[in-house]
Records
---
Amino acid sequence: MSALLVMLVMGCGPAELGEECDEVGSSEDCEDGAICTNSSSGEEAVCRLLCAEQTQCPAGTTCNGISGTNLKSCQPD
């Protein structure tokens, strides 16, 4: 019974970078340092790295604003 409880708790943690999330503009669904943003297809929302400037983003991404907020995230090019 305790093994089932551990599996349930681990499955309910915050989403990691690139994983789906529920509320665009919210950081509550995502791991620390990430925020929920629209995917490039616009069909789902995913967690992306928060940024203030381009130097904080990995190669292949651009620090862009998140619609409806004053925040930015590293969006795929």
---
Amino acid sequence: MAKKRVHRPEGSRPLPPPETRVPEPRPPAEPPKASLRGRFEDASMPALMWMRSLPSFLIPVVLASVLFLGLTLRATWSGYLLFLVAAFLIWMTALSWPAISNGSRFLRVVVNLAVLGLGVLKLMGRL
């Protein structure tokens, strides 16, 4: 019985028999992030993916609406609305911290402190 011929492209070598093949090394799996920063990013990922699935205009509109209500309502509890806005801004600042310049860092910290300060003044009844 004749041996079956296998077509191989020019320059290719035949494969060795299965019992002598050495498995190809797999690329190493990504090691788990052990740092606090890595765990923070990993914990934030589900919320970020959910926000990414929303229409792009929705988050800024909701954030601006909550900020507007927090500033215009006369009730002292409206300071909590400002704390909600500040918490979101602080979270976004913390996530983007390594990627932004020093000038942007300074500006974001000032804005975060201003919103927190307005929330405290609102809760104290002075605004």
---
Amino acid sequence: MLFADVRGSTAIAEHMEPAAYAALLNRFYHVATEVLVRHDAIVDKLIGDEVMALFIPGICGAEYRRQAARAAVALLDAVGYRAGAEVWMPIGAAVNSGVSYVGNVGGEGTMDFTALGDTVNAASRLASVAAAGEVLLSEEVFATVADEFPAQESRTIQLRGREIPFSAQVLRRPGAVAPADSNH
């Protein structure tokens, strides 16, 4: 499960014409979709200024956690968080894994394919506290990719709506803006 969220989108929109803002978001959605599909993701939703993607073992294989982490890093790279590039869209991302309900929800007349459950909620909340240029990985995901992506920081986060603090490992990309308070 991956969420990528535009940081400061309200401030960005405030200084742009609506059509120009829509064009910028559409550019982000296009780039995000290409990156995610290239990493075997199912792009579940484009939600306002956020992208939600599923990495399902039956599609991605046994390395689905690694694929999700690679996709998150590739997405940040694609919007400019890489050496020598200019960031054109400030995003933070998060990857979590676990058991979720995946299928259709809704009622007569309105159906939606999605994923639901604590794993999804935690991933969404993690993305909401990731600073621009950061990928927050759950401990379970990080354990599978530590050899490829050494973390720069361990962070314990009190996620909104959850009783138990959540431990995450931080991957900070070049050009990332470190949060003022790393204890979120």
---
Amino acid sequence: MPTAKPMLPVKIIRELLNYDPDAGTFTWKERGMKYFETDVSRRIWNTRFAGKPALCTLAHNGYMYGAIFGENWSTHRIAWLFHTGKVPREVDHINGDRKDNRIVNLREVDRTANCRNMRIRRNTSGAVGISWHRKGQAWVARLGSKHIGLYKNFEEAVAARKAAELANDYHPNHGRMADIAIGG
């Protein structure tokens, strides 16, 4: 597994950006001479960018990002670093909206916990971990690779799957319908 690039120091992030934790948005701060070779380039940059939205480009996968010193950074990771002062392992969007970078919607988690708060992917049953077993003429409930059981009734299969999720520390939002259009 490739190692993550090192984050910018929080001091630099806070020097360059303003963060509105209630809106989840960033704006560029005015920069001093230490970031420029000439006063003209400083004035041009500040006229063009200071006070304007930052880290607000929408990626194809639905996440927001932007460039700082020519390198792209995920907005949610910068928001976590800016607000807490700590480099996050992984940041989860609690409500599943990848564009919602309000601090109340972000939490630091490990990979497993992040995967346990995913919206439903396309499937034929409309419920996570539930599929129709044609040969057995019953609904199959699974949690990952673990077989939970066969059920004649769809609602029983869904209830069994939800019970298994709760018993295995899945986030209550796991399996919610995708009401957020990715990339749109």
